[in-house]
């Protein structure tokens, strides 16, 4: 990697992505101490950095392969951390967590194998929609008791299962896109 390539990696969007990675242990620190709403604040801050880095990267054309890989990874690790902690508290059902973990394992392994073949699969609208619904569902989990009293039904569970359906749909999109991109790159090399 040349010095010029390194300069491209270190930009504001990628720095925000790395901040989000650092916020994961901060989130766990507060969750393990029982500071649920402080942990929620950390999760919200991480979600805001996700919005900011995407906006800045697109607006100022600061999109890098590093960002294409690390931004979704940071999102996945934060969402899994929040979901795991809420599952341990009995708020999120175990099947939701297990389905999400299986999907993410497929995505990470597939992404790694494709990256080794110089193919980077970037996020698409269905993945972004699934991520947004999943974040909203996790936010609703922090207020599940109030929502249940107010609405009379477990909105957080409906949102979680909607997020799972969208996540699995996104997985199908990413697999087909990865296969297509791999075939195209293989054709160019021949």
Summarize the structure.
With 190 residues, this protein is mostly helical. The chain has eight helices and no strands. The protein has helices at residues 3-9, 12-32, 36-59, 65-88, 94-116, 125-142, 144-151, 155-189.
Write the layout of secondary structure elements.
Layout: H1 3-9, H2 12-32, H3 36-59, H4 65-88, H5 94-116, H6 125-142, H7 144-151, H8 155-189
**Global Rg:** 18 Å
Which range does the strand content fall in?
under 5%
Q: What is the oligomer described by this structure?
A: single chain
| Uncertain stretches | 1-5
The tally of domains stands at 1
What's the number of helices? 8
Give me the secondary-structure category.
mainly alpha
Helix content: over 70%
Distance between the termini: 25 Å
Could you describe the 3D structure shown?
This protein has 190 residues and is mainly alpha-helical. It has one domain: CDP-alcohol phosphotransferase transmembrane (TM) domain (Four Helix Bundle (Hemerythrin (Met), subunit A), Up-down Bundle). The protein is globular and about 60 Å long. It starts with a helix and ends with a helix. The chain has eight helices and no strands. Helix 2 (12-32) runs parallel beside helix 4 (65-88) and helix 4 (65-88) packs antiparallel against helix 5. Residues 1-5 have low confidence and may be disordered. It has helices at residues 3-9, 12-32, 36-59, 65-88, 94-116, 125-142, 144-151, 155-189.
């Amino acid at each position: 990697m040349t010095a010029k390539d390194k300069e491209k990696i270190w930009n504001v969007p990628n720095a925000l992505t790395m901040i989000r990675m650092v916020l994961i242990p901060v989130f766990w620190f507060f969750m393990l101490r029982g500071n649920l709403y402080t942990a929620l604040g950390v999760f919200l801050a991480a979600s805001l950095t996700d919005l900011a880095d995407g906006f800045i990267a697109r607006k100022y054309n600061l999109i890098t392969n590093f960002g294409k890989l690390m931004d979704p990874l940071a999102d996945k690790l934060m969402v899994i951390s929040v979901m795991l902690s809420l599952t341990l508290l009995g708020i999120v059902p175990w099947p939701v967590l297990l389905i999400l973990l299986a999907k993410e394992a497929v995505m990470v392994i597939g992404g790694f194998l494709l990256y080794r073949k110089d193919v980077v699969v970037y996020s698409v609208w269905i993945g972004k929609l699934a991520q947004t619904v999943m974040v909203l569902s996790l936010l609703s989990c922090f207020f599940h008791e109030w929502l249940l009293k107010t609405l009379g039904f477990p909105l957080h569970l409906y949102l979680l299962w909607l997020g799972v359906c969208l996540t699995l749909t996104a997985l199908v999109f990413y697999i087909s896109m990865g296969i297509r991109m791999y075939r195209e790159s293989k054709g160019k090399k021949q």
